[in-house]
Specification:
By secondary structure, this protein is α+β, with helices and mostly antiparallel strands. The chain has eleven helices and 18 strands. It is globular, with a radius of gyration of 27 Å. About 10% of the residues have low confidence.
Length: 437
């Protein structure tokens, strides 16, 4: 029997280590090629490390909670014959040279059969990595999963099964909350005689722990406010021509190119062009230096089904036409909602846009996505009566209006530059003429 080493793979720019959150195998287990071995987490995204070969788990070199470096060996498999030779090729191409020269010193894990692990092995049906991840994010216990009726092969729980369960659970919680509010409104107000009166009734409350992603978002937002001197500027834009063109061409676009065309794609195309004209908005700060970025890596703030937020990145967006922008944004947004983003698809952004119009919000002041220096919020497009200038004089007309909001880092960008950028972007949108798509 030959040995094959499973290393922690590279996971994107700036990611040097990952935390082992859960081992999915134990010594002695037989594994197949591409079978998930371990769940890992970085400060960017959760992921899994698959097996590079068919074989038997010999040794786990890190405990749950440990944080190995990229390139370090985390697991050893025993394989036979051709599997071993093929796996050596995979390892040689995947493992960085630095990791080949200097192997980690790690103690084997002491495997203890905990009650909850035994329970999962005995009772749980097979769960796909996506379903496991979704259940973990929603804090769904093993006992709850067992009660879900699966519609997949051999009764397996599918993504749709779990989403339906989560929706029904949310509806039940909402119903309970509504009943509690109604009961509170009809009850006699509480009279407090003193702060130490143990006979006084108190209103019930629920403590909801943040899931891992929400904690990361909270830390990231607080760090951004502590790092950047946030300022916001606003401008109104008449996007009537833009809206009309999209309404006229959206069906033809989808039929021809196989993707939906939204206003977000048109706003993104215009924003990319203006960011190239004002390179200071496409920069970052390192100490006393301003780093101007050559490529426009456009972040697209995306709301997830569980209420959290993620920002996938369209790399080198300035090289894409409207078709490429639409396809890239649609693909990233869908895979974000399905929890299928790769780690390197949410790092490296240089400028971010967020569309508030999806929730009918007029405007807002988003927090800058570090280490960027600006973020653009697109408000809801609304029909409004406005005064327009014509050769025969001023007139009142019904126009499609939206508000753009730019949050920017005042350490780098002054109000004048922010105003110039917004005005130039407004002019481009108001004088919209479709470029080659």
């Amino acid at each position: 029997m030959a040995e094959v080493k499973i290393v922690l793979p590279a996971m994107g720019e700036g990611v040097t280590e990952a935390k082992i959150t859960k081992w999915l195998v134990k010594p002695g287990d037989l594994v197949e090629v591409d079978q998930p071995l371990v769940e890992i987490a970085t400060d960017k995204v959760d992921s899994e490390v698959p097996s590079t070969s068919k074989g038997k788990v010999k040794q786990l070199l890190f405990n749950e909670g440990d944080s190995p470096q990229v390139g370090q060996t985390i697991c050893i498999l025993e394989v036979e014959g051709a599997n071993a030779e093929e796996s050596r090729t995979n390892i040689a191409s995947a493992e960085p040279k630095s990791a080949q020269k200097e192997k980690p010193i790690a103690k084997p894990i002491e495997i203890t059969e905990k009650a909850e692990v035994k329970q999962e092995i005995k009772t749980l049906r097979y769960l796909s990595p996506l379903v496991r991840s979704m259940a973990k994010q929603e804090n769904i216990a093993l006992e709850e999963l067992e009660k879900i009726e699966g519609t997949g092969l051999d009764g397996r729980i599918t993504k749709d099964d779990l989403l339906k369960y989560i929706e029904n659970r949310s509806n039940r919680i909402s119903q309970i909350e509504a009943e509690a509010k109604e009961r509170i409104q009809t009850e006699t107000p509480i009279q407090y005689t003193s702060s130490t009166d143990t006979n006084s009734s108190v209103l019930a409350h629920e403590v909801v722990p943040m899931d891992r992603m929400r904690k990361l978002i909270a830390e990231h937002m607080v760090r951004s406010k502590q790092t950047s001197a946030h300022v916001a500027s606003f401008i109104e834009v008449d996007v009537t021509n833009l809206v009309n063109w999209r309404e006229t061409n959206k069906d033809k676009f989808q039929k021809t190119y196989g993707d939906k065309l939204t206003l977000t794609h048109l706003f993104a195309q215009a924003t990319i062009a203006e960011v190239k004209r004002y390179p200071l908005l496409n920069s970052s700060v390192e100490g006393d230096n301003i780093i101007l970025k050559r490529d426009v890596n456009l972040g697209i703030a995306t709301a997830l089904p569980n209420g959290n937020l993620i920002v996938p990145v369209v790399k080198r967006a300035e090289t894409l036409n409207l078709i490429g922008i639409a396809k890239s944004i649609n693909d990233l947004a869908q895979r974000a909602r399905d929890n299928k983003l790769k780690p390197d698809e949410i790092v490296g952004g240089t400028f971010t846009i967020t569309n508030l119009g999806s929730f009918d919000t007029l405007t807002g002041t988003p927090i800058i996505n570090q280490p960027q220096v600006a973020i653009l919020a697109i408000g809801a497009v609304k029909k409004r009566p406005v005064v327009i200038e014509t050769p025969s004089g001023d007139m009142i007309a019904i126009r499609q209006i939206c508000i753009l909001s730019l949050s920017y880092d005042h350490r780098v960008i002054d109000g004048a530059l922010a105003g110039q950028f917004l005005k130039s972007l407004r002019d481009r949108l108001e004088n919209f003429t479709p470029s080659e798509i």
